[in-house]
Design brief:
By secondary structure, the chain is mainly α. It contains four helices and two strands, in the order H-H-H-H-E-E. It has a two-stranded antiparallel sheet with strand order 1-2.
Length: about 130
């Protein structure tokens, strides 16, 4: 191999290697985003699990919670996870979730929000408002 062939081969390999860092940085960004999404989903699932465990019977017998009650808690937790910086009043939360706005239904939600606050998942930034704890 003469010097010209060597330099040509060297330049080809150098050009190939020059593209690798950019490609790897792109993969790193994709993986970082996927990791963040997965960690957020795991946090949501952990919150849901803790709420369901709190509602389960102490003796371990029977079903954990009725499915409709678990679904209601999941909907509330999901709403706060989707809007972590927003404080909601009960009526606003009902409107967002398409839930009935009658007094008995809102009192049940108020009770659920109180439980989530006592468990440390929510905070009350003001009277009647609830927000996801960050």
């Amino acid at each position: 191999m003469n010097i010209t062939e060597f330099l040509t081969e060297f330049q080809t390999r150098r050009d190939e290697a020059a593209g690798c860092p950019a490609e790897l940085h792109g993969q790193k960004a994709d993986l970082t985003g996927a990791l963040a999404e997965t960690e957020a989903r795991l946090a949501d699932l952990a919150t849901t699990w803790k709420v369901i465990a709190e509602l389960s019977p102490a003796d371990g017998g029977g079903d954990l919670v009725p499915p409709e009650q678990a679904a209601a808690y999941q909907a509330v937790v999901n709403a706060f996870n989707q809007h972590p910086d927003q404080a909601f009043r009960v009526r606003e939360l009902h409107e967002l979730l398409g839930m009935p706005a009658d007094d008995p239904a809102m009192n049940v939600t108020r009770s659920r929000l109180g439980r989530l606050t006592r468990q440390g998942f929510l905070t009350q930034p003001g009277r009647g408002g609830y927000q996801k704890r960050t």
